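Chapter summary example.
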Amino acid sequence: MLRRGFLLVAVAVVATGIFAARWYNIGAEIGEGALSAPEALARAQLGEILLVDIRRPDEWQATGIPLGAVPLDLRRDDFVEALLAEAGGDRARPVALICARGVRSARLGKRLSQAGFTAILDVPEGMLGSGAGPGWLARGLPVMQ
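The structure predicted for these 145 residues follows.
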């Protein structure tokens, strides 16, 4: 009986660790097709990319929206169409996605590539930080309310 209890506790600890690693995007890195938060800010200010904050409205309200970003809730049924409109109808326009920790932006990037967008970039450190970096807010980068 004691062995069974120990095994259950061990499984719970491992499962919690895996969940936490995914939640905080601990394994994220700045690689090809990814931008650090400062790079995303600089390129958005130069007009080189369309920076899109794909988080929920309650998240925008809690932290603000990255300066120069377009807030576009990824849960919208017409998300692809709305993004295409923001991109001026150009599926080749470079679009950088940012979320809280880079998990949703990475998933959405794959979906947008399948929808025909050819220049999707990710900001894997997100607003709150991940394995890719401390995040927009911790870096003290500007936000809009």
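To summarize the output: The chain has five helices and six strands.
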